[in-house]
Amino acid sequence: MPPAHRLEEVFRAGPPGATGRDAEDDDATEEDGAPSDIAEALDAWIARNLAALQERAEQGCSAFEQRLAEAGRELPRSAWGRIGVRVRPQRAERATPGAFSIEWVTYRHVRTAAGVVYLSDYIRKGDGDRYPKSAFRGIARDWQRPLVEEAEQGFGAIRAAARQLAEVRTRFRAAAKRCRELGLDGNSAR
């Protein structure tokens, strides 16, 4: 990636030998993209950070499940509860590459002719980066609530960071598109 003081210069210059509007069109990564070297560097940086956040979220899921099992070890099976957390990749077509979601679920089992089938239902998060404490009311057992709240605090911070990374990508692409629409290029007078 070029040094920060050269980003504007790279953005304005376009590929060698190209000038004006043609440079912007040839240089774009997609319809609303920006010069490919900056967009690619930004995408790579975002992908690395999203991957690190996803790994941290998966570690948080494992730690939560381990602590939940340790805390419930002495309890009868009927008191174990039915709450869990999952990290899933976002598969929407317009999602930021590498984006993921951290979702709380409840588990239940249903007896069928084929045997017992385990199903999960997702708990509604609502607005914001954190699940409200009320989302777990009637779902998490009293002994589970402190563990859930502690884990959710960490997951909320991860969700916020992932959301901000996606916003950086979206805003960069919107700004590049706006600059192209305004005909800005390296030859513009200041």
| Count of spatially separate domains | 1
Question: Poorly predicted ranges (pLDDT <50, ≥5 residues)?
Answer: 1-34, 186-190
Number of helices: 4
Structural class: alpha+beta
Query: How does the overall form come out from the CA principal axes?
Result: elongated
Cα radius of gyration in angstroms: 23 Å
Mean pLDDT: 81
Q: Give me the strand/helix succession.
A: HHHEEEH
Strand content: 5-15%
Fraction of residues in helix: 40-55%
Topology, element by element:
Layout: H1 4-13, H2 20-27, H3 36-72, E1 83-89, E2 100-112, E3 115-122, H4 145-181
Q: What would you say this structure looks like, in words?
A:
The protein is 48% helix and 15% strand. It has one domain (4-181). The protein has a 3-stranded antiparallel sheet. The chain starts with a helix and ends in a 9-residue tail after the last helix. The protein is an alpha+beta fold and 190 residues long.
Which terms summarize this structure?
190 residues, alpha+beta, 3 strands, MobI
In summary, what is this structure?
InterPro entries: MobI. With 190 residues, the chain is an alpha+beta fold.
